[in-house]
Specification:
Oligomer: single chain
Strand order of the largest sheet: 1-2-3-4-5-8-9-10
Number of helices: 9
Shape: globular
Structural class: alpha/beta
Distance between the termini: 7 Å
Number of strands: 10
Largest sheet: 8 strands, parallel, barrel
Strand content: 15-25%
CATH architecture: Alpha-Beta Barrel
CATH class: Alpha Beta
Number of domains: 1
Amino acid sequence: MRVPPILLSTSSCYPASTESAFADAARLGYDGLEVMVWKWPETRDPDVLTRLAESYGVPVLAIHSPTLLLTQRVWGSDAWGKIDRSVELAEAVGAEVVVVHPPFRWQRDYASGFVEGIARRQAATDVRITVENMFPWKARAKDGSRTKERHAYLPHWNPVDLDYEHVTLDLSHAGIAGQDSLGLAHRLGPRLAHIHLTDSTGSNRDEHLTPGRGSQPCAELLQALPELGYTGSIAVEVTTRKMNAEDREAALAESLAFAREHLPSFD
C-alpha cells in the first residue's frame, strides 16, 4: 500500500493566483495539487496546468469540479457538462480524482438521476469520481426562537447511504453536520477515496480550520487509514483568505506537518 500523497488545494490559497498555489506547494514540500475549477481560465486549461506542474515539479492529482454556489456560471449552466469536462480535464493532466458536490435542491431534473449518472460516468473512466459529503443548511426561524435545518442537497447531503462507488470526506463539512469523521470513514470503508483534511469546532459556519485547531478527530482519522485499506489521497483544504501571506504560509506548513506527523506507516 502506498503512503497517501498529501495535496494542497488551490482553494487554500484563495484569493492568490493558481501559479502561487503551485509555488507554495513546491516550496513547502506538498506531494501534489488539487485544482479547484474556478473563474480563472488557467484552472480550466490542461496545457497551462501541465506547464505549471512541470515548471514547479508539483503534479495535479485532483480536480474539484465547479459544482459550488460560487462557481455556478463556470463552464455554463449544464450541470452534467461541468462533471464531464472535469473528468476530461483530469484525464488530460493525469489527475486521479474528480471531486463533485451533490445537486442543489432546485436542480431537480439533474438530481433525479444523479446517482445513476455518476455510476455511468464512472464506468467510462479510470479517474475516481468522488461525491463529497455536505451538510444541512441552518437558518434562524423568523421569530428568532430556534434554528431550522434545510436540506439543500438532493438526493441527500450525506453520501453514506447512497450508492456512490467513491466518496470524498471533508472534515469541516462533517463538523457543521454534527458528525464524527472517523465514524464516517469506517462506515464508508473502501468507498472512501479522497479526504479534505481540515477541521471544525462544530459551528454553524463552514470553518475549514487548520487540522488540530478544532474538535474533529483529524489525527485519529489519519492514524486509522492503514487499517481502512485506504488507497486515496489527502488534500489540505483550509481557509486562509483573511490571512496575510506570512500567516497563510504558516497555516499551510502547519497543515502539512500535521498530516505527516499523524500518517502512520503503510508498509
